[in-house]
């Protein structure tokens, strides 16, 4: 049950002003529920030798000798509510990453990066990058390029049951960086892989009215979706002037 205390409030439909009455209504069972899907992400680091900084070295016969640290196939897991972002980081080169779907190469992203988002995340960074907005009840994953160097690379929606894998292309000139809901940012090197699929553990969210009305209310109030001055109908005099 999310209360609106911040600035935007897209995912927080309840007002804190009368929270006692609203909590009572929910406890009495007068509330609808929406399950917001999450992404299960595995980051696999290829084992490599990594040199430490000189400051961490040891002195032998007056010389600084760098110790070497081995990373053996390290794998970390994350649960992500909004999106996984792979970008070029501080590099001036294009991001060049391969995207696999169920083991098959579907495309190579050449641009600033790529966003893999849930329906909940489709109204966040993905929407700013030009993606469509998906209702949270739709079982899907959105793939959105960030500033692609292409006239035809549009965002796509894939089924929630697929497994995506993102890796640096063999001919990539630079490394990439990945973040999970804007956190845990880390470098992706050649040989590393990021596996993404829909998590078995969605986030239950209590609705203010119902899943459909809450979502469209948030689009209208928070994002001003399709706000435009309405066109007036012709009056009788104006119709005569047209002829």
Automatic annotation (TrEMBL):
The organism's place on the tree of life at top rank: Eukaryota
A single GO BP: NAD+ metabolic process
Classification via Pfam families: NAD_kinase_C
One example GO MF annotation: NAD+ kinase activity
Name this protein carries in UniProt: NAD(+) kinase
Source organism (scientific name): Engystomops pustulosus
């Amino acid at each position: 049950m999310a209360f609106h205390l911040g600035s935007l409030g897209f995912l927080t439909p309840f007002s804190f002003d009368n929270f006692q009455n609203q909590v009572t209504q929910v406890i009495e069972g007068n509330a609808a529920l929406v399950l917001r899907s999450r992404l299960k992400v595995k980051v696999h680091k290829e084992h490599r030798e990594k040199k430490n900084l000189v400051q961490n070295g040891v002195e032998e016969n007056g010389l600084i000798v760098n110790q070497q640290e081995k990373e053996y196939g390290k794998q970390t897991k994350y649960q992500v509510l909004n999106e996984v972002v792979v970008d070029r980081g501080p590099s001036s080169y294009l991001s060049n990453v391969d995207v696999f779907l169920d083991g098959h190469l579907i495309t190579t992203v050449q641009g600033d990066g790529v966003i893999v988002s849930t329906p909940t995340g489709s109204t966040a960074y993905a929407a700013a990058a030009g993606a469509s907005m998906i209702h949270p009840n739709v079982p899907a994953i959105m793939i959105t390029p960030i500033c692609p160097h292409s006239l035809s690379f549009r965002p796509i929606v894939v089924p929630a049951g697929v497994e995506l894998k993102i890796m640096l292309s063999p001919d990539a000139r630079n490394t990439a960086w990945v973040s999970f809901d804007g956190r845990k940012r880390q470098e992706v090197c050649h040989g590393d892989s990021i596996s993404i699929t829909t998590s078995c553990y969605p986030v239950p969210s209590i609705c203010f009215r119902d899943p459909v009305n809450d979502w469209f209310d948030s689009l209208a109030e928070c994002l001003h979706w399709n706000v435009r001055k309405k066109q007036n109908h012709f009056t009788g005099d104006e119709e005569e002037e047209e002829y």
